[in-house]
Design goal:
heterodimer, A: 318 residues, alpha/beta, eight-stranded parallel beta sheet, globular, B: 296 residues, 2 domains, six-stranded mixed beta sheet, 18% helix
């Protein structure tokens, strides 16, 4: 028997696989047993009602997608009345994802969602801060600190900070969220991107810019998870281009305690249960009894610590 | 069906590089990644291809207007990453087959066109809300243009099978691009073929011809797909006659089960409020009264 469970602070997950926010909804309950997941993470909601951005909302690449959806939201009333009861029937921790235009609104929605059915609240800080000329909270160290501090003061639920990769030093932001009291850090959200149609000269997205997700991002975000895990002691949740169990193992070896699968579900709707079943088989094959052993367990190449290798091999004199 | 079609023997197992695998967590769920076997995949004319596949029981529950999200194989330079939505053209539970009629127009359909009899087809579904139940319809007006015919034919057939009368308007660029005329005639539908080449497909000419049919034998429901102009014509009729109208819409999709909100279209409700609805989850069949024109 393999123990696939992992702990994100006070929350125990049956396995390290959960959906990325915005890639799970009621429709997936017709496809597989959501009770098998490590956690259920719902689509980000905002305090206000939002329709989302003008279509077209999607551009496709060979191994990535560029989305500009704009967080359509039915607000917290609908969420507590409809969404929470729907997912509460599964014996799986429910994680609410929230976003807002101001620090105060982040705190207000966190207070509103302080209910026992919600196991944790994810702070989606990749959205624009209306009090800072639209600059994303997550790109500003002070705004990042203020959002997490305010949410922690407003709710008894654990707060998970979902970082944006659109910064120079993501590990620094991971540190800031830990110092502000975050219970876990999710690394990362989508990369900002855009696309133009050469025939019409028009942007391909109604919103001009969008977020790039999918397998193409895996090496980039894997590196970020590695960098963040080295500097924080709170759990890191890896999210970026994960398609199957082997990607989950890679992220855990890089330092992730758990992972989020997103775009892969659009391609293979059963990607998450496949990954969970694949992880169990991997552990059996390697004689691993507790999957948590994999966290940060990357081995130095050939047994030699990377720091001990000279960047330039010494020349052998003739 | 053209006689040149090769039929694969359904008893011969498909050689699999990756053996079919159904995760335990998804066994018995209504929406499935159905592993089908292609029996026929051949051109029916210059633009369209017909694909028939042997499908598992879950897929055979598909209703008219519903769709499958198809995994499309790579071909040439194309590597389609996302699946492609494809409305169901026929379901035959007795034969255990599902049928698609499609136009090759992009990376996904170019890939689908390469599938040979015996190849595996991964068809995720059945998905979406289809047309209203066919029972009780006395006279259905079907307005189909081009590939819209693929989506509407099963509903026309269902209404005819339930004892209703169907007038099927088949609009196409040219006479040789008209499809399924025989199939619709065989199930008792009255077909009216109109084309661009002879000018009969012009909306105003059609309006007069359909109004004349209505005066003789009133329509009590309308379905349309494949043309913005025909959708507007159908809406005019639905309003004038006070009958329900339905339109099947298309949109680029990612997830097909309402997760990602990429495939939205704008709708205007009776109060004049605009909203975005997901074609995959709220549709693909919508009340014609609320669907907005996509050309303006």
């Amino acid at each position: 028997m393999v123990d696939l469970s992992v702990r994100i602070g006070s929350v125990t997950l049956a396995n390290p696989v959960m959906p990325g926010s915005g890639t799970l909804a009621e429709g997936l309950a017709d496809v597989f047993d959501l009770g098998r997941l490590g956690a259920i993470v719902t689509k980000t909601i905002t305090p206000d009602l939002r329709r989302g951005t003008l279509p077209p909302r999607l551009v496709e690449y060979r191994d990535a997608t560029l989305f500009a959806i704009g967080i359509p939201s039915l607000g917290p009333d609908y969420y507590l009345k409809k969404t929470v009861p729907f997912f509460a029937r599964f014996p799986t921790p429910l994680v609410a994802s929230v976003s807002a235009d101001t620090v105060e609104d982040f705190a207000r929605i966190a207070a509103r969602l302080d209910v026992p059915e919600i196991a944790a609240i994810e702070a989606n800080i990749s959205c624009p801060n209306l009090r800072a000329h639209g600059r994303a909270f997550g790109m500003d160290p002070v705004a990042t600190r203020d959002v997490i501090t305010a949410m922690k003061a407003a709710t008894t639920r654990p707060v998970w900070a979902k970082l944006t990769p659109n910064v120079g030093d993501i590990a620094g932001f991971a540190r800031i969220t830990e110092e502000a009291g975050a219970d876990a850090v999710i690394v990362a959200n989508a990369f900002l991107g855009m696309a133009i149609d050469p025939e019409t000269r028009e942007p391909r997205l109604g919103n001009v810019m969008g977020g790039l997700t999918g397998p193409a991002l895996k090496p980039l975000i894997l590196r970020m998870v590695h960098q963040c895990a080295e500097v924080v002691s709170i759990p890191v949740i890896g999210c970026g281009g994960i398609s199957d169990w082997s990607d989950v193992v890679e992220y855990m070896l890089a330092g992730a305690t758990a992972t989020q699968i997103g775009t892969a579900t659009f391609v293979t709707p059963t990607a998450m249960p496949r990954a969970i079943e694949g992880l169990e088989a991997y552990c059996r094959r390697h004689g691993i009894t507790r999957i948590a052993e994999l966290i940060g367990a990357m081995r130095p190449r050939g047994g030699v610590p990377t720091a001990a290798i000279d960047p330039v091999p010494a020349k052998v004199s003739a | 069906m053209p006689s040149a079609l090769r039929l694969a023997d359904p008893r011969v197992p498909i050689p699999d590089v990756h053996p079919p695998y159904v995760p335990a967590a998804s066994a018995g769920f209504p929406v499935a990644e159905n592993l089908c076997r292609v029996l026929v995949n051949a051109a029916v004319n210059d633009d369209y291809r017909l694909m028939v596949a042997a499908a598992p029981a879950a897929a055979l529950a598909a209703r008219p207007g519903q769709f499958f999200h198809l995994a499309c194989p790579p071909s040439g330079e194309d590597r389609p990453f996302l699946r492609r939505p494809m409305s169901i053209h026929a379901v035959d539970p007795a034969a255990g087959t599902i049928t698609f009629l499609y136009k090759v127009q992009g990376a996904g359909t170019r890939g689908l066109a390469t599938l040979a009899p015996g190849d595996r087809l991964d068809a995720f579904g059945p998905l979406g809300h289809g047309f209203a139940a066919p029972e009780g319809r006395r006279h259905l007006l079907m307005l189909a243009r081009g590939v819209g015919l693929a989506t509407l034919a099963p509903q026309a057939e269902a209404v005819a099978a339930a004892g209703g009368r169907v007038t099927a308007v088949l609009s196409a660029r040219a006479r040789d691009l008209v499809m399924a005329e025989d199939r619709l005639a065989a199930c008792g539908c009255d077909t009216l073929v109109v084309t661009d080449t002879d000018g009969t497909s012009a909306v105003e000419a059609l309006r007069a011809r359909i109004a004349a049919i209505h005066a003789e034998r009133p329509f009590d429901a309308i379905v349309t797909c494949g043309s913005d102009r025909l959708m507007r014509l159908a809406r005019d009729f639905a309003r004038a006659w006070g009958v329900p109208g339905e339109v099947a819409l298309e949109q680029h999709m990612a997830c097909a089960v309402g997760l990602c909100h990429a495939c939205v279209r704008p709708f205007v409700d009776a109060a004049g409020e605009t909203s975005y609805r997901r074609v995959c989850w709220d549709g693909p069949v919508f009340p014609i009264e609320e669907a907005t024109s996509w050309s303006i």
